[in-house]
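PT: before anyone asks, these are the final sequences, not the draft ones from last week. 495 residues across everything. Please model them as a single complex and drop the result in this thread when it's through.
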Amino acid sequence: MSKKKISVLRIANIILIILAAILILNMIIPLKPVTGGAVFTYETSNAACLYTYGEDSTEMPVDICCNEVQKVLRCDTLIDDPNYYQVCYTSENPSEPHYYLNSDAYNYCILNGFAIQKEA
Amino acid sequence: MHIITAYLMDSQFKKKLKGVKAEQCLFAFLLILVLFLTYLNVTGTYKISLRGEGPIIVHESKIIDLREMTLRQKISQMLILFGQEHNLNDVRLLNPGGVYVGAISADPQGFKDASYRLQENKSVPFFIVTDMEGCINPFSAFRTFKAFKDINTTEEAYQAGLEEGQLMNELGFNLNFAPVVDLEDYIWKCRSFNSGPVDVAEKAEAYIKGMHESDVLVTIKHYPGKTLLANDPHKEILRTEIEDRDVYPFEYLSKKADAVMPSHQITGGVVDTDGKPADVSNSALNTLRKDFNGLIITDDIQMLGLKKFYGNDAEMYIDLFNTDNDMIIFMTNDLPKVDQMVSIIEQAVKDGKIDEKRIDRSVIKILTAKGYTVL
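LR: through. Structure below.
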């Protein structure tokens, strides 16, 4: 019984030593970035971003939208809007630029490392 | 005999028991170690504290000896990072050449404080950068300006450059990612002067004059033109045909602008990017360099127009540094990723994949633009 237990523990310890060595190596030598983000990185099919400026409005490419939304002062959650989840702006004045993002666009921006402003 | 046998059996049992206990202790220790290392690897929290570099040595009369700069310091000078209220100290630690600051405050004092916190005790100050483009204005919570599309004369353009520049200077900004000299803007419908090539070039020239009189450097964008088109909101990589009229403003302003920002677009026609995004195309940047000797600053490398072109980030980073870009905008809140990028470039230089002289050329340009003499 003890022999079997020791063997199992020994194997587990060897595996843990190997894992620890790999993790330490990854911290010392810069390995190529992992590709785990690939699944969500390029999935934009349901994402939508609407830009409004005065009376004009345009649907814009999602990655450009994420990039611009980082630069604004604040984003608010839209509670009753069936189409959009967040509105982002620097000035509350409606004649200044506003960005409307649906939840897919918002999640896409967050998951891709864009620094979206938190609600005030 | 019986006693000896019993004693031997007992000591063997104790040995086994000790062995099990030792293995168990080792198991527990290794498990904790692996969990801790996994946490460090996933969050990357160890990286900044490990790789932070000291200040650049500056001699009397603002002289910097390139030989006294480490490779990491040089690479970092070529980066423009995203500064936010919560990360300014970490950004300072990474020592980039520039910090992009968006609308971080609803009042002027917030911007002044941020600029002061960034520049305080820096041996070489940062470029503090924003997009000040009339309608796209990080200060619109307390000050609005005319959209470029509504600027009708060169005098109005000069006045806009002067007033926007004065505000930027007052708030601690010294580099503007404007004016846009794309001839049309179909996305925002306000960022371009929205007229023919000659008119756009002359208005941009007047705007630049106003900015320069306010001691703010300017960036004309996005080379080689036709960037602000959005025929398909789900298509990230755009291909366009460039005509002479598109590049006219860039040629006209080549001796007046401090920086040019190439786009992530793949273009054909008079500027052929050889099937690559413009900012990683030697062909496009060589064409630009024929007339222009200032800074070439990429657009944000987080954007899919560039990212989707590459299989992995390391390959993209190396291409960006191997092309004639002087500064690279990396707008991410993942600062360990930036640190990793610097390490990848450092290693690529050591492996001979990137020529250090190429990096030196850009660093000289950046430091010269900041007012230093580089030996």
